[in-house]
Amino acid sequence: MTELKDVKGVGPKSLSLLNKLNIYTIEDLVTHYPFRYDILERNDLSLVGDGERIVIDGKVESVPILMRFKAGLNKMNFRLVTNSGVVGVSIFNRAFLKNQLLVGTGITVIGKLDKTKNVITASDIKLGVLTNKVKIEPVYHCTSGLTNKNLSTYINMALLTCGKEIPDYIPQEYVEKYNFLNKKTALNIIHNPSTDEKLNEVRNRLKYEELFEFMFKINYLKEQNKKEKNGLKRVIDRSKLEKFIKTIPFELTNDQKKAIDEILLDLESPSRMNRLLQGDVGSGKTIVAFIAMVANGLCGYQSALMAPTEILAMQHFINLEKFLGKTKIKIALLTGSTTKKEKQDIYNGLKDGSINIVVGTHALIQDEVVYSNLGLVITDEQHRFGVHQRANLQNKGIKPDVLYMSATPIPRTYALTIFGDMEVSTIKERPKGRQKIDTYVKKNSEIKDVLGMMYEELKKKHQIYVIAPLIEESENSDLTNVYKLKDQMELAFRGQVEIDIVHGKMASGAKDLIMEKFKNNEVQILISTTVVEVGVDVPNATTMVIFDADRFGLSTLHQLRGRVGRGTSKSQCILISDSDAERLKIMEKEDDGFVISEEDFKLRGHGDLFGTRQSGDMSFKIASIKSDYKILLQAKKDSREYLLNKETNNDELKKKLIASIAKA
Ligand code: ADP
Ligand code: MG
Predict the structure, then answer these.
(1) Contact at 8 Å (CB) between 332 and 358?
(2) Domain CATH for 553
(3) Among all ligands shown, which has an atom nearest to the Cα of 380?
C-alpha cells in the first residue's frame, strides 16, 4: 500500500499537520470526509435584496487597500467587476490574501450585500471563479497551516494515484444487492460532488460501509459469546453477602438493589455474564461493582476492576480498602506506574491466588498477567474501551463474567443495538439527599462575578475545579490553557489558597500526587483538562468552573459537573463561553444525564456520547447512530448474515475483519 508521504505534494511539514488531524495513512486521508458542504450558487447583483447573502464571482478591478487596526485587526477594500455590474468588497482579517488579489484575478466572493452603499461585506473570498452556476464545495476539518484547499488537493491526488488500493469493507454480494457504486467512485463523488442527489446516494453507501464493518465486529463478538456456554456457575452465600452489605454506611437505592440482583443472577447462571451497567454520574455504580466483586470473592474467584485512568484506578483502590478493609479480601493496585518490584509481587499474587481483587488500568490485560482463577472482570467507564479491548478482555484467562460500567447513558434502543451483545442494567434513581447542582452560563466579560463566586466558596473552606480545554499555549488557538489559568488564578487568590495543575501529559506519578493533595484538601483550586472528567470523587469540592465550555459536548460537561455535588453542601457549575449559549443553556435547566445525552444526540449526532476521542472504534467518520439508525439496522442484519454464511469463510475480507478484532 502506498504511504501517505508518497502522495504528491505531501512533504514532511504537511505530513505532521495531517497527523495532527489523525491522518496517518492513505485510507485515513481519503476517508477524511467533509463535515459539511457549502453550496455556492452564483447570484446576480440586481436579484439580491439589501442585507441578503450573496455569492458572486468576478475579477478584481482595483488594488486592494489594506487598513490595520489595533489588536491585530485588519480590513481590505477593493472593487470587483461582475457580469451584473461593479461592486465594492470589504473583508476583515484577510491581509494574507492581499498579494493574491492582483488586479484581473478571478475570485468568488461570499458575503452580505449592502445595496445603498453597493458594497459586499465578505465573510469569505475564494480564489477562482465559479465554473458552473452551482458549486458544491466540501468543507473539511482543518488545522492551522493546512487549508481546506490543501486537504482537497491531497485527497484528490491520493484518489487519482492510488484510489484502487483503498479497501472496501462491503462484501461484493451486498455491493451488488444494493447496486452500490464502487469505493473509488464513491470517494471521488463525496470529495467532489456535483449534484445533491448523487451526493446523498454516495453518503449512504459510505455510511453503510462504516456501519457494516462496525456491526460485523459486534456480531462476531456476540457469536463468540454464545459459543462459550462454559461460564462459571456459582452458589452465592446470600446471607454472607447480606452481612457485608450491612456494613455499607448508607442505604442502597432501589435501582442499585435491582442491578445487584440482576448481576447476582448472572453470576449464578452457567452462561457467561456480559452486562452493561449504566447510570448517571453519581448514581452509585461503583458500590454495585464492589458488591459484585465481594459476591464473586465469596465463591473463591478473583476479580479485576479496570479503570480508564490511573487516577480512577487509584480512587477505586482506596475506596475498596475503605469498604473491604475489615474483610479478609486482599486487594492490589496495578497500573503503568507500579514499580517493577511491586509488579512482580502482584503478578505472583495473582498467579498463586493470594490476591483476590486487582484494580488497575490497561495494565491488567497485558500478556504478563496470569490469573489463578479470574471469575469477574469489571471495566469502569465502558465507553472508553473500544471493541478491540472488549475482545481482548474476553480472550484473557479463563472465561470470566464481564460487567461494563458506563456513566454516559445511552438511550435504550441504541444501547440494544450497539451493545447488541450485552444485557443492560440501568440505575436512574439518585442516592437520597442529593441536591441539584446550580448551573450558570457566563461570558468571559463576567469573569469578575465568577471570581467572586469562587471567593465565596473558598471562604467556606470548599474546593474548586477549574477546567480548560488546552494544556499549554498553542500558536494557532485562542483557547484557554491550564498554565494561563493558573497565572490568572494566582493573581486573584495568591497567598490565600493553594493552586495546582493536573493534565493528561503529566507523568502519572505526578498526576496522582496532585490528585491526592486535592483529595486531602492540601490544594484548594485544581486546574485541569478533562482528565478529571470521569469518576474522581472529592466531596468537599463544590464548584466547577469550565472555560471555553462551548468546546465540549453536553455529555462531557455533564460528566465534569458530576465531579461536584458529591457532599452535603450546595454545589455549582459555571460554564464560561462567549458563544453557543443556547446549547449551553440546556445545562442550566437539565440535570438528567439521559436527557442530556439525548440532546447531545440531537445536536451533535453521536458526538462525544461514545467518548470518540478515546475509544477510536466507536467514532464514526460519516455515519451517525441516531440519524442513520435505519442503515445501522440493515448493516446489522446483513453483517450477521455474512458472518454466519459459511460459504464466505474463505473471503479475504471476512478474514481481514476478524483479524482486526483480535489484534488489540
Ligand atoms: P458513579 O455512578 O458516578 O460511579 P459513585 O459510585 O462514585 O457514582 O457514587 C457517588 C458517591 O455516592 C460515592 O461517594 C458513593 O459512596 C455514594 N453513594 C453511592 N450509593 C449511595 C447511596 N445509595 N446512598 C448514599 N450515597 C451513595
Ligand atoms: Mg464511577
Answers:
(1) yes
(2) 3.40.50.300
(3) 2
